[in-house]
Amino acid sequence: MSSKNKNTQLVSSGRKKAYTHGVVNPVIQRASTIVFDSVSELKEAAKTRGDKTLFYGRRGTTTHFALQEAITELEGGEGCALYSCGAAAISQTLLSFLKSGDHILIVDTVYEPTRDFCDKILAGLGISTTYYPPMIGADIEEYIQDNTKMLFLESPGSITMEVQDVPAMVKVANDHNVMTVLDNTYGNGLHYRPLEHGVDISIQAATKYIVGHSDVMMGVAVANKKYWPTLREHSYLLGQCTSADDAYLALRGLRTMAVRLNQHEKAALEVAKWLEQHALVDHIRHPAFTTCPGHEFFKRDFDGSNGLFSFVMKAGNQHAIDAFLDSLQHFKMGFSWGGFESLVTANLSMKGLRSQTGWEHGPVIRLHIGLEDVEDLIADLQQALAIYEQHL
Fold first, then answer.
1. Sheet holding 148-154, edge to edge
2. 314-318: long-range contacts (C-beta < 8 A, 24 or more apart)?
3. Known catalytic residue: 208?
4. CB within 8 A of 9, min separation 6: which ones?
5. How many CB atoms lie within 10 A of CB 112?
6. Both ends of the chain: CA-CA distance in Å?
7. Is 183 a catalytic residue?
8. Fewest CB atoms within 10 A around its CB: which of 19, 160, 186, 226?
9. 280-294: per-residue pLDDT in tens?
10. What is the 3-state secondary structure (H, E, C) of the chain?
11. In whole angstroms, what is the distance from residue 201 CA to residue 226 CA?
């Protein structure tokens, strides 16, 4: 890390003259074929396998190298692989290290496409999956089998936001020679750095806070020294690559991520505190709130939160949820988050989204608080909740 100040790091990383050619931002270098002037030059490039060396377009150009270097520095790893989206980063990381006969442990509150990938793709390859409760901590040992190869974590969990005791779980995994992978999209590398807690590979949907403007799909995976060579090579063999233009936009988003996150965090806390007092709301699922499972681990391990949280209703039905969603003006319905706009999704129950963790509460509404005026967002929620109540 070139600076202990993370804000400075976000501005300065990945800006070597080899990437910028003397201007502020790295240039957009688009390429498929890289040409060489001599056999020795070609052999030297082949020897590096394209790690920050021009070799072939799929290995990346200087635009990609700049982004990879910046994210590697942010997460504190050995290297960073780029993918077409967050789901690709997850699936290709799993495929890079799992083979037929292996067993993987997946947190029960995992991102739904990750669950689908395990159930529909890995199962067909002879790779078995066991889902474990998110708050299990060191008791994860009870789930480890002789053929367990990987422990997959996501903290906070999707929708219901449970924060896992990562260090305790990593210790157990290490004792059993099980590699650890964590979906760090919420933690973004600025507020949480899994590799500092012993995790082997940290994955992000860069689509979200890194890009920050809802206009690029991208995934990243940062590995430690032990696992980087395999992740790099296998991702290449699996055909993973991104465009130089998308890499440029991700770099541009990275420069302002800290200031955007500050505003997202401040606004989300204000909205969550307002919702906490509402008569229809049972409790808040925001890692910074004591009502969120694993709040103590969030306080211990994270440097901050962001714009994403959920709240649980005391009662509800699908008709009330639909009326609530349809009445919102500033919150748009959409399945992503991390951009400048506010978004909303809702679930009447957790049926189909988990298999080992029960749900004994009411409907869950997930919000992403964007960069709009907080008073406008609260007013929008207030009128929508009034309509919700009319349909109970």
1. 79-83, 219-223, 201-205, 179-183, 148-154, 103-107, 128-132
2. 314/280, 314/281, 314/282, 314/362, 315/280, 315/362, 315/392, 316/348, 316/362, 316/363, 316/388, 316/392, 317/348, 317/391, 317/392, 318/348
3. yes
4. 1, 2, 3, 73, 74
5. 14
6. 54
7. yes
8. 226
9. 999 999 999 999 999
10. CCCCCHHHHHHHCCCCHHHHCCCCCCCCCCCCCCCCCCHHHHHHHHHHCCCCCCCCHHHCCHHHHHHHHHHHHHHCCCEEEEECCHHHHHHHHHHHHCCCCCEEEEECCCCHHHHHHHHHHHHHHCCEEEEECCCCHHHHHHHCCCCEEEEEEECCCCCCCCCCCHHHHHHHHHHCCCEEEEECCCCECCCECHHHHCCCEEEEECCCCCCCCCCCCCEEEEECCCCHHHHHHHHHHCCCCCCHHHHHHHHHHHHCHHHHHHHHHHHHHHHHHHHHCCCCEEEEECCCCCCCCCHHHHHHHCCCCCCEEEEEECCCCHHHHHHHHHHCCCCEECCCCCCCCCEEEEECCCECCECCCCCCCCCEEEEECCCCCHHHHHHHHHHHHHHHHHCC
11. 10
C-alpha 392/C-alpha 385 separation (Å) is 11
The active-site residue out of 102, 165, 183, 380 is: 183
Q: Of these residues, 6, 51, 56, 58, which one is catalytic?
A: 58
Which one is catalytic: 19, 83, 111, 388? 111
What are the two backbone dihedrals, phi and then psi, of residue 252, each rounded to the nearest 5 degrees?
-65, -40
Of 59, 193, 208, 260, the catalytic one is 208
Q: How far apart are CA 261 and CA 186, in angstroms?
A: 11
> What is the pTM assigned to this prediction?
0.95
Residues 6+ apart with CB under 8 A from 3: 9, 12
Assign 1 a pLDDT band (cuts: 50, 70, 90): very low
- Residue 215 identity (one-letter amino acid): D
pLDDT digits (tens, 9 = 90+) for 238-278: 999 999 999 999 999 999 999 999 999 999 999 999 999 99
Reported as a single tens digit per residue, the pLDDT across 141-196 is: 999 999 999 999 999 999 999 999 999 999 999 999 999 999 999 999 999 999 99
Q: Is 58 a catalytic residue?
A: yes
Q: Residue 226, Cβ neighbours under 10 Å: how many? A: 11
d(C-alpha 148, C-alpha 78), whole Å: 25
Single-letter amino acid code for the residue at 58: R
